[in-house]
């Protein structure tokens, strides 16, 4: 699960504006392309798809189409479809082999995830598995990739253990991990002599995130002057916040998830009015609507469609709005697109050979495009090194939520997490 930095715990926002997909959906490259419209940059046509006469390459997408992470799963699917069209120039094929996409719903339940993954491997005989929205679902499925000897591209689950203690050589991750969040959070605010306090919930999510942030911040020369760990279900943060005020840090770095957030208490006690700058992660758009009290804060963002400046992101924004009634892409849409581009790039490098041995050799150290810029699968643990963004939340007349405004791009080298496997 992720750091909030709400961002992104694998607990989603059921109120997000998404269209529920059927529980079991089979789509080939042609189906995905059929929604693409006539936007510039989509060079495919029906004739190109018809020419792909080789054996299909089967990609299974395992994600939350229902359950608490439904919004994340739907974003990821939309992004994957757009990414597949982008990476294959609209043909939906690689080296004459059509790509068949088979989608299954985990219901955000690890047991269901294992059942669906097993069915994809045994009955559908997929070549590559992509998913899942939940870290719990993903961790449950990881061993199957090794059992069936197939490549699994992890997107967007963020638990460090996926490319850490539970990793196996068939796992590649396009999504970032929790330690990358922490390193990015530190890179956004930490410097020589900077005094920082940390507020995080007292359970593994908060404690692990705080430890990773502290290590990264201290490596940059910052001083962690106080760490406060209220209970996971706390609703009264008065004592914690008062101790933070007394410590008088320059920054307060907050890691949180859940409805019982400390944002209102921090506002009521005037933390920012006392010269303490609050910093956290700017999450998906649905969560940004809850962050009015944090306007002016400096932190980091994994993705907001206004932040990257590259042709892939331009294509994603234009194509997503064309296909989905003017709706802009969100955090996990970009991740879905990245996973599709990575799969196609790997298959292109193997001349359409979808065997795990060929793909694994091609993917180690592979650099590929994404809406966030180039990503590289680190050979040691197959974690994608990628850019994140140092941002400030600001009011903007064209947005009815606080807008993450770019301070600077954090390079893949700056945000590289420790190797944990």
From TrEMBL:
Residues 56-393 form the Leucine-binding protein domain. The keyword Signal applies. CDD domains: PBP1_SBP-like (cd06328). Keywords: Signal. Pfam families: Peripla_BP_6. Residues 14-55 are annotated as: Disordered. It comes from the Bacteria. Residues 14-49 have a biased composition (Acidic residues). PANTHER family: LEUCINE-SPECIFIC-BINDING PROTEIN (PTHR30483), PERIPLASMIC BINDING PROTEIN OF ABC TRANSPORTER FOR NATURAL AMINO ACIDS (PTHR30483:SF6). This is Substrate-binding domain-containing protein. It comes from Evansella tamaricis. The lineage of its organism: Bacteria, Bacillati, Bacillota, Bacilli, Bacillales.
